[in-house]
Amino acid sequence: MDIKVTAPQIVRGDIRLPYSKSISNRVLLINKLSKSKILPENIAICDDSEMMRNALSASSGVINTGAAGTATRFSLAYLSMTPGEYQLTGSERMKQRPIKILVDALQKIGAEIEYAEREGYLPLNIKGKELEGGEIELSGGVSSQYISALLMIAPYTRKGLKLTLTGNIISLPYIKMTLSLMSMYGVETRMIGNQIEVPTGIYNPLPYRVEADWSAASYWYGFAALANDVDLLLEGLDDISIQGDSKVVSLFTPLGVATEYNDGYVALRKCNMVKKAYEVDLTDTPDLAQTLVVVAAMKGVSFKISGLQSLRIKETDRIAALIKEMRKLGYLLDDSEEGTLMWSGERCQPDEEIEIETYDDHRMAMSFSIAAYLYPGIKIKSSEVVTKSYPKFWEDLSKVGFNIE
Asked: Do the Cβ atoms of 178 and 146 come closer than 8 Å?
């Protein structure tokens, strides 16, 4: 469904954020391996986590994880070590996203996986069995989901796992999140430099409560940056978090948003610290890129945002999508440096009627809704894509005075 979004100049309200899907999908897998009879609390209610649940409950046959990248990578690792015969497939976009690096790594530790159609991509035929484990090398510049998938199943291999990451490690907080959760469930890992060692062992069943999603909070920081005035309370967040995207707090201070921590929520306020130029490396937090690009441009702040190599293989090629859609708003972005997006302040004539394509990417829809402050009535196409991570996003906007048509 296509919608038109108009933003209020003053944003006041109390928002109950969705729970973290990154934590949810990890905890669902670890909890399953622990053979716990208790489901973790506050599991994210979204497409990605629903796909994860379905894959973990399958005993054989075709498993379709849709457009859920995390669920696809984690499920592949889990099914490889789970007795049975499976075919893992996904949406048309998911079939275009590379999986060969993870397949190769799993095969090296004993997995039986074959490509059903095109080499390097879904669908995959899997014969689940006990895996050998051992020593493998993997590029640290690939999706951290590959690395986390291998780490979480490693205790259940015969030899455990010694994983050496080569090159520059991206999205390190997501790897640390995985190791932290493994430790909570009783498997003590060791990470020294670029090497991670996981011993054989078992996860202990235990109760777990998932925290609210800092990635989802980032859009509200965007609204706070552009509104004339703001008084927003975001529930479920704390100053101590295992989520890398909690860095949104410091990333938005130079864009005019102050954060006040309280017991179980944060309050967002305006502050007068807006920089004329903005330079940041998002190697650890690439999911914040779209929001920061939109907000900085809307505020007239020139920027250089690096560390975006992984954006090419997300739900869409996010770098190409940002360049195309920002041009519709009149902003000419530059991607001449690999893994970097820049804006010097160069403008062009915006489209007369602005229609934002979302490319089956939830973050495109949510980040470009922020542009409603400068472009009232901006059209967001296929708005339902937000169900991937934040199903009540448009409902929450309506609660605080946005007009959604």
From this structure: no
